[in-house]
From TrEMBL:
UniProt GO molecular function: ATP binding; long-chain fatty acid-CoA ligase activity
Catalysed reactions, semicolon-separated: a long-chain fatty acid + ATP + CoA = a long-chain fatty acyl-CoA + AMP + diphosphate
Pfam families per record: AMP-binding, AMP-binding_C_3
Organism classification: Eukaryota, Metazoa, Chordata, Craniata, Vertebrata
Name under which the protein is recorded: long-chain-fatty-acid--CoA ligase
Superkingdom of the organism of origin: Eukaryota
Signal peptide: none
Domain AMP-dependent synthetase/ligase: 31-119
GO cellular component, as recorded: endoplasmic reticulum; membrane
Length: 368
């Protein structure tokens, strides 16, 4: 499998741009001798991929596990689709099990690249490799009609509504960010609930030293506000004054997302804007190599010492940063003392999500 670009007839304008612009960009980045650009461990966002494509730096994604001895699928210049992990490596077999009506299922792998098992952990090995030798990755994926693999999420992050329908949150969250340019982070909640709600944060400036989110909106967010006729410059102005122009635009974006829902269970019914964006410093985001969950220590109006626990084991990636808050709407509401949904606009993200712990469960006070 060749990773280098094929020689093909290209427009004259491309060769001019390559000589005058693209080659200089690569040289300034120290990449003038690179023939292939690959990314792994965490998925790239569409905006990141498109940015590098605009510089004639197509970044292919590799998908694989330590248990699969590295790559299972890979993108090349000849086999490239944005947001996909390319095609399955020759000699490897791929199967999607328990597919839903959209063709999304668990990615399973088979071949000589699959490991023999975990050392002295037979039980874990039997849970990972079935009797036919298929490695169950725990990742959700789909394949298009040309054989490109797209990873869409993790099995354990699937929300199961009160009606028993499985909902993958990542595609919905990504669509919300796409439809509403002012949104920085979106987190869908609604596990065992009758409907879905979503927590939203706005794009804002960050501290140059600590990286912590500031109250001032980013230039992109300010331009978005001005395009609507709003004069807001800070997150606080929008949230506490419930800026009608911004809130109406967000509602229109949510409505647009709901139009693409494949079932009623996947529609967003309620939403809330948080006053502070998620960050590593705030404890809402974690780095790829860290696997921690959440200790919710909110102060509801009245609470007992009883706790409810849920396992949060599988972080989700967004350009190497993983968002790992609990997705139980009931626990979030009990922790914050509020009910999610408009017009709830004064909830602090720290009041809802609490601080990170190294335990694999989060505790949430039970409301009396």
């Amino acid at each position: 499998m060749s990773l280098a670009p094929r020689k093909r007839d290209l427009p004259l304008g491309y060769h001019v741009a390559k000589a005058l612009v693209y080659s200089r960009v690569r040289r300034s980045l120290g990449l003038e001798h690179c023939h292939a650009f690959l990314s792994g461990a965490a998925p790239l966002t569409e905006s990141t991929s498109e940015f590098f494509l605009s510089l004639d730096i197509p970044i292919g994604e590799i998908y694989g596990l330590s248990e699969s001895s590295g790559p299972h699928s890979i993108s090349t210049h000849s086999d490239y689709r944005i947001l996909s992990c390319g095609k399955i490596v020759s000699g490897c077999e791929n199967m999607l099990v328990q597919q839903n009506k959209d063709g999304t299922g668990e990615v399973c792998m088979w071949g000589r690249h699959i490991f023999m098992g975990y050392l002295d952990r037979e039980d874990t090995t039997l849970e990972t490799i079935d009797e036919d030798g298929w490695l169950h990755s725990g990742d959700l994926g789909r394949m298009d009609n040309q054989g490109f693999l797209f990873i869409t999420g993790r099995i354990k992050e699937i929300l199961i509504t009160a009606g028993g329908e499985n909902v993958a949150p990542v595609p919905i969250e990504n669509l919300v960010r796409e439809k509403i340019p002012i949104i920085s982070n979106a987190m869908l909640v609604g596990d065992r609930a009758k409907f879905l709600s979503i927590l939203l944060t706005l794009k804002c400036e960050t501290d140059q030293v600590s990286g912590a989110p500031l109250n001032k909106l980013s230039l992109e967010a300010i331009n978005f506000c001005r395009s609507l006729g709003s004069q807001a410059d800070t997150v606080t102005e929008i949230v506490r004054q419930q800026d009608p122009l911004i809130y109406e635009a967000i509602q229109q974006g949510i409505d647009a997302v709901n139009l693409e829902a494949t079932s009623e269970a996947q529609r967003i019914h309620k939403w809330v804007i948080l006053e502070k964006d998620f960050s590593i410093q705030g404890g809402e985001l974690g780095v790829w190599s860290l696997l921690h969950s959440w200790s919710v220590s909110g102060q509801p109006h009245s609470a007992s010492s009883a706790s409810c626990k849920e396992e949060v084991c599988d972080p989700r990636a967004q350009d190497g940063i993983f968002l790992k808050p609990p997705r139980s709407l009931a626990c979030l509401e009990r922790a914050s003392g509020h009910v999610l949904g408009p017009p709830l606009h004064h909830v602090s993200p720290m009041g809802i999500l609490g601080s990170a712990s190294r335990e694999r469960a989060f505790s949430c006070p039970q409301a009396t």
